Amino acid sequence: MKSYTKYLTFNTKNRRELIKITEDVQTAVKESTVKEGLCLVSAMHLTASVIIQDDEEGLHEDIWQWLENLAPFKKDYKHHLTGEDNADAHLKNLLAHLQVVLPITNGKLDLGPWQEIFYAEYDGQRPKKVIIKIIGV
Question: Does 92 reside within a domain?
Answer without folding.
Answer: yes
